């Protein structure tokens, strides 16, 4: 049995669920075990994750957490990502594989060129959650679940120059936590996520920004229920600097997405102004029908029909080893230490 060291930088629902899923894998007889070390600037997050069994160790500094780690999961607040790479680079071992969960992948690949050596490998990673949790927007550590990635997918976005052994390791990590790994080009990733992640976030931010400036805001703020809370929740979960950088770094793509959406909003507004009940009905019926199809597809979880690349990882490639590292020997069981 191989014993792999995993460092998680930034504890939230998703990353804590990674820790729980790794422990589940070992408990169910998986051939590898994992020692998981967590870092977060909020000590309560670390305490809660360890109490839940997701972490073995905790560290108050990121550079200490990544020492000797085989796998590093990067999930710090987005405005801190570049600085974290700078802080940890001297502590990273050769052969380490960094799974970067930043909302945008292209900037991280550029930072990797600046701060990592050719023996340290970065692959973007985006988790698509179990359909069981599709309507659950809570991101607190205590909401973590060991099955958060079951019946779903993890998108992997390696650079074109990423070595095969690192890709194999990321592929197998995604499989171990219960997911179906899929590969996506980093540019395409940032475009698609602008539509399904960034657009909802900027709608929530802009809605709140608009309402807070109204003269009757003092009255409006009391007339708020879950619909309002769910849409504006990014302002609770994400640091404002993180939202700023996320929107700005993907500004050209996000602007095009907004242009299209503004066009659709205009059509709805025009139908309302023109008393066009038929147009409103047609739009809501079409959306409702398509929505039902989306929900059914997500619950069916047949990721084999999705048009995202699914090359099989060559687990034998993991046995070849990353140059200057012992990861492959650990995975193959050849490393007796």
What would your notes on this structure say?
This protein has helices at 13-27, 43-51, 62-65, 81-88, 106-115, 164-176, 186-212, 217-220, 226-232, 234-237, 240-249, 251-273, 277-300, 315-320, 327-332; strands at 2-9, 32-39, 57-59, 71-74, 97-100, 121-127, 153-158, 180-183. Strand 2, helix 2 and strand 3 form a beta-alpha-beta unit. With 337 residues, it is an alpha/beta fold. An eight-stranded mixed beta sheet has the order 3-2-1-4-5-6-7-8, sandwiched between helices.
How would you summarize the topology of this molecule?
Blueprint: E1 2-9, H1 13-27, E2 32-39, H2 43-51, E3 57-59, H3 62-65, E4 71-74, H4 81-88, E5 97-100, H5 106-115, E6 121-127, E7 153-158, H6 164-176, E8 180-183, H7 186-212, H8 217-220, H9 226-232, H10 234-237, H11 240-249, H12 251-273, H13 277-300, H14 315-320, H15 327-332
Parallel strand pairs: 1-2, 1-4, 2-3, 4-5, 5-6, 7-8
Antiparallel strand pairs: 6-7
Helix pairs in contact: 4-5, 7-12
Order of helices and strands: EHEHEHEHEHEEHEHHHHHHHHH
Strand order, biggest sheet? 3-2-1-4-5-6-7-8
Show unreliable segments: 310-337
Global geometry: globular
Note the beta-strand portion.
Answer: 5-15%
What is the CATH topology assignment of the largest domain?
Answer: Rossmann fold
Number of helices: 15
- Say how many strands there are: 8
Give the tally of structural domains: 2
Alpha-carbon distance between the two ends: 11 Å
Backbone CA Rg: 22 Å
What summary fits the major beta sheet? 8 strands, mixed
The CATH class of the largest domain is identified as Alpha Beta
Oligomer: single chain
The level of helicity is: 40-55%
CATH homologous superfamily descriptor of the largest domain? NAD(P)-binding Rossmann-like Domain
What structural class do the secondary elements suggest? alpha/beta
CATH-derived architecture of the largest domain: 3-Layer(aba) Sandwich
Overall average pLDDT: 90
């Amino acid at each position: 049995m191989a014993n792999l060291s995993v460092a998680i930088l930034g504890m939230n629902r998703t990353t804590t669920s990674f820790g729980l899923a790794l422990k589940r894998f070992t408990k169910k007889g998986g051939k590898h075990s994992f020692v998981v070390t967590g870092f977060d600037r909020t000590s309560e997050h670390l305490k809660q994750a360890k109490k839940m069994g997701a972490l073995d160790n905790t560290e108050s500094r990121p550079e200490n957490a990544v020492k000797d780690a085989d796998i590093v999961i990067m999930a710090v607040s987005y405005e801190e990502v570049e600085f974290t790479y700078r802080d940890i680079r001297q502590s990273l071992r050769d052969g380490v594989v960094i799974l970067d969960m930043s909302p945008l992948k292209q900037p991280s690949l550029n930072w990797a060129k600046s701060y990592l050596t050719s023996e340290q490998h970065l692959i973007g990673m985006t988790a698509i959650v179990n359909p069981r949790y599709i309507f659950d927007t809570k991101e607190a550590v205590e909401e973590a679940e060991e099955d958060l990635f079951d019946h779903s997918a993890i998108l992997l976005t390696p650079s074109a120059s990423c070595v095969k052994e690192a890709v194999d390791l990321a592929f197998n990590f995604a499989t171990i936590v219960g997911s179906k790994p899929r590969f996506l080009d980093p540019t395409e990733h940032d475009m698609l996520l602008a539509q399904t992640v960034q657009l909802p976030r900027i709608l929530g931010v802009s809605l709140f920004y608009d309402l807070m400036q109204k003269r009757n805001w003092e009255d409006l703020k009391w007339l708020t229920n879950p619909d309002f809370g769910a849409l504006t929740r990014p302002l609770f979960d994400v640091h404002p600097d993180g939202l700023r950088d996320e929107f700005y770094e993907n500004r050209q793509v996000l602007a095009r997405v907004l242009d299209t959406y503004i066009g659709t909003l205009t059509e709805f507004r025009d139908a309302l102004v023109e008393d066009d009940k038929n147009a409103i009905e047609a739009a809501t019926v079409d959306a409702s029908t398509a929505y039902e199809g989306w929900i059914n597809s997500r619950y069916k979880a047949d990721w084999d029909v999705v048009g995202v690349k699914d090359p099989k990882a060559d687990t034998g490639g993991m046995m070849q080893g990353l140059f200057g590292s012992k990861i492959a020997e650990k995975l193959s069981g050849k490393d007796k230490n």
